[in-house]
Amino acid sequence: MTDFLDRASDQEEFFRNTSIAQARSRAQEEPDEDEHGRYCLDCTQIIPLARVAAVNAVRCIHCQTTREKK
User: Fold this and answer.
1) Which residue from 49, 57, 55, 52 is spatially nearest to 29, judged by alpha carbons?
2) pLDDT tens figures, 10-37
3) Rounded to an integer, what distance in angstroms lies between the CA atom of residue 61 and that of residue 38?
4) What is the pTM of this model?
5) Domain limits of the chain?
6) How far is CA 46 from CA 1, 8, 19, in A?
7) Residue 39 pLDDT grade (very low, low, confident, very high; cuts 50, 70, 90)
8) Torsion sign across C-alpha atoms 17, 57, 30, 64
């Protein structure tokens, strides 16, 4: 039983640390925007206003999905 609990604890710690690291990297990225809208930091396409309003996005859906897969 102890092994199972140790593995669960290790996994929880890994996910927590990963989430914290991702939040810190997002916090350091400044949005690129002008009077036309906000631009994706990777592909420079304009990010839809609904996405910016919903999650304060700095990347388009395609680039963010690709980034998360890595």
Assistant:
1) 57
2) 899 998 988 888 777 665 678 888 999 9
3) 13
4) 0.58
5) 1-30, 31-70
6) 52, 41, 27
7) very high
8) positive
